[in-house]
Write a structure and sequence with these properties.
Helices cover 53% and strands 0% of the residues. It has 73 residues and is mainly α. It has one domain: Transferase(Phosphotransferase), domain 1 (Orthogonal Bundle). The termini are close together.
Length: 73
């Protein structure tokens, strides 16, 4: 489900969910560990709350708390 969340984020916004700066891999790792998703860019203003919720749920860090495909649907 994590991969589905990453792909959905990319398809909806054209950006990677936790940054895409190859030079700052530690910042990306830190963002993942802290569950930091940023929906404050202009592109996300045009995306429905339902789609944002889907991405947030699919990218839940803890796999035990991450919903399965049926629940995400």
């Amino acid at each position: 489900m994590w991969s589905t969340g990453v792909v959905a984020h990319i398809l909806l916004s054209g950006t990677f969910p936790f940054g895409n700066d190859e030079k700052d891999a530690e910042l990306i790792k830190s963002s993942i560990k802290e569950d930091k998703l940023n929906f404050k860019t202009l592109v996300w203003d045009q995306i429905s709350d339902t789609a944002k919720d889907f991405v947030k749920l699919a990218l839940t860090k803890n796999p035990d708390k991450r919903p399965n495909a049926i629940k995400l649907l």
